[in-house]
Amino acid sequence: MLMDTMNMTNRFRQLSLSVLLLLLFVYSAAYAEHQKLIMGRSVDAFPETMSALQEEIKKAGYVLSFVQRVDIGLTGMGFKTDKYRVVFFGKPEEIKELPEKYPELVPYLPLAIAIFAEEQETVLTAMSPDFLGPAYLKEHPELKVIFDRWKKDIESIIEGVCYQ
Amino acid sequence: MKTKFNWIFCGLSFLLGSSLLLTAGNAQAATDNSDQASLAMGSELFQIKCSVCHGSEGTGGVGIPLNLDDFLKTTSDKYLQQTIRLGRPGRIMPSFNELSDVQVQSLIKYIRSWKPEIKPPVYDQAHIVGDKEKGKQIFNSICINCHREAGIGGKGTGVTFSRPRDAEIIAPAIGNPAFLAAASDQMIKRIIMTGRESTPMMAATSMGLTEKDVDNVVTYLRSLGKDVKLGHDHDYEPGAAVLTYESSYSLEETIDNIKAAAIGYNFRYIREQTLNRGFVEKDQENKNQYLVYFCNFNFLNQVLSIDPRIGMFLPFRATIMKKGDMVLVMTVNPNYLCSLFNNAELREGCEFMSEKYEAMLEESTL
Known about the structure:
Low-confidence stretches of chain A: 17-34
Radius of gyration of chain B: 29 Å
Largest sheet of chain B: 5 strands, antiparallel
Mean pLDDT of chain A: 81
Number of domains of chain A: 2
Order of helices and strands of chain B: HHHHHHHHEHEEHEEHH
Number of strands of chain A: 5
Helix content of chain B: 40-55%
CATH architecture of the largest domain in chain B: Orthogonal Bundle
Oligomer: heterodimer
CATH superfamily of the largest domain in chain B: Cytochrome c-like domain
Structural class of chain B: alpha+beta
Shape of chain A: globular
CATH class of the largest domain in chain B: Mainly Alpha
CATH architecture of the largest domain in chain A: 2-Layer Sandwich
Largest interface: A-B, 72 and 76 residues
Mean pLDDT of chain B: 86
Number of strands of chain B: 5
Helix content of chain A: 40-55%
CATH topology of the largest domain in chain B: Cytochrome Bc1 Complex, Chain D, domain 2
Distance between the termini of chain A: 42 Å
Order of helices and strands of chain A: HEHEEHEEHH
CATH topology of the largest domain in chain A: TATA-Binding Protein
Strand order of the largest sheet of chain A: 1-5-4-3-2
Strand order of the largest sheet of chain B: 1-5-4-3-2
Radius of gyration of chain A: 20 Å
Number of helices of chain A: 5
CATH class of the largest domain in chain A: Alpha Beta
């Protein structure tokens, strides 16, 4: 009977874990449907998070093209941090081809992730490419594949920086 | 014979008792495991979706701090559940309506686990009936100082220690329809009666208010939520995703024009580059696709202090590109992007930016 009880407890643990993972999966998929911003918080300080971000961008197969400062004069305005950057990245072939086919997409290229310090932690924010859907997909439905891939990649980059 | 029967009876009783104890223990273990699984789910969900605004330990960030004793003492689970479901239209907090009840409960369980000694309050759902007009008068003489007109909430949203603030905690939008849908009359009354420690919210008596006055204020607040449909933003017209103008000039002339126009609108020139700079060798850069960057630092810092996330679209960038015989000048449309942030306070800034961008593009292309 004791063995039965132990087996039941183990089975229950396994079942709980399976249910938990399933629910998280369902949750992630559902959440991905509606979100306009892709955001993450790293418990690491700004310099470490910035390095991790650049690593993850490369790991996802993108080239980092420029890091834009957005913090000039912030401390003078009363901000307690001056660590705010926007990191631009893309795939060279897409930066070459997309403007030819879709010039109206260029203001949203290259892709960008904003990164700013908040006390000892760091916040990352990017626009979900989903958000561009209503503006572009009616005329260019073929862009959906690209937007979906960008979204998946940006999510994976931010998750890689913040939660792994 | 009797002794033998007693032994059998005792043995059976022992087996039955042991089996009942094991079953009870098993049920307890199952409950404990279920609690642990729920807590683990809540923790994971919180870190992935909530911590980015509320901080990894609920201390606040872009969003309000959730782990304050008085916040946990005065907010019911029902309020938390409704807040997660409805969000706060126009105040950053999005609606997480797609979460299952199990997931929402697990989040609440996790939030409660920070201070397990605090028992969540349960409020009577009975409505308070007071004098709305008297409540309005009190609101407009006392509450308005922090919560602003019609309870739209303190200036700036949430709290972050990285940007300038008049106070560490921003007065909540107590006239927001989603707040009023989530908070019961009794909960609002309790908070006004006792105030909230660690925040500027004082107890009613410290503000010279009687219980009847508080009832009147609650009645007034409740009247604000009527006739407002959640999830609808009737005034918002985002426009196109991109502002595009065709230039009457050559690419080089248009670049010069846009620089002159931007400076005329109090922007400072930062730099220019080809679109594919950084992606190809310098001698292979496409000189027919240019990006020119400008910034109005005063404006940039003002909008960053409203919502730091908007920095992802700043500073101002004009794209100038040759397409066949045409020269196009384009920028992102701040009005279109504004809805990304669910922050009504950004609306004015976005409109201002869109107007300025359009004016600069028009001036440089005509």
